[in-house]
Amino acid sequence: MDRGDAVPIAELLEERRFLLEVANWMLGNLADAERVVGETYLRWYELPEAVRRGITVPRSWLAKTAGAICLSWLALSGRGTVGHEEDHRTRPTDAEEEAGRIVLDALESLSPAERAAFVLDAFGMAPGMVADIVGRTEPEVAELTDRARQWLRVRRSQPTTPQQHDAVVHAVLRACAAQDGERLASLLCSDVIAFFDGGGKVRALTGPVHGSRPVADSLLTLLAGRPRTGLTAQSVNGRTGLVARYGCQVAAVISLDVADDRVAQVWVTLNPDKLRSWNRRRTHGGPGSGRSP
């Protein structure tokens, strides 16, 4: 018997409950969450005994492993939940069930990285560990978490279907291509906010822009039609967004958060470091499908 695996029953049950909750909120249903937890414990017992004994906080190792498995499942599924089969072993109240459904529906609209960062942060995981799981730096994880929180606040009050989102994004694309400021402003919420991330590597607006007309003007200035400049609709963070190119180089990636048939938030990534993966794809078979900048 390995006495290193002897743990009080209360700790065992609490540990498993914690892992199930993390996986359930990341994947969206309990059946998939249980499979993740099973895989997590399988990996634990596949470790050599000496390695297991050297892990001072097993719960942290287990949480990190479960989070990584969930993130890989989300990436493979493209976005959102892995499955939607119902599970009747727990019977929450109608109010709890409805609240949970609303939050999970909103979480489905996040990219895998945003969803993982938000859920793991909400469960109190250390920023360094979250960054390790998501494969980003701590500042980038903080940005993902903040973006997810703001988007969930929007979605809670004004849910939008993928079809509505796509229609609005393509309308924005047409307005930008035509340099039609009035039309573009009409597609934005009156209190829309735009964020421009240049990372200190290019000259970009350093603070958020508020209001439909100022945001429209800022976007049109940025995307002004010039020779060799093009704008296309592509998958960005699991939802349709806009990608601006100068020649063959991706110069900006724009995420649009849509609520009630209007754009509520705009995220413009201009930082060359964050666009490196987009431009790498150019040398490996073209732009393909989007991914987080």
From TrEMBL:
PANTHER family: ECF RNA POLYMERASE SIGMA FACTOR SIGI-RELATED, SIGMA 19 FACTOR. GO terms for biological process: DNA-templated transcription initiation. Transmembrane segments: none annotated. It comes from the Bacteria. GO terms for molecular function: sigma factor activity. It comes from Streptomyces himalayensis subsp. aureolus. This is RNA polymerase subunit sigma.
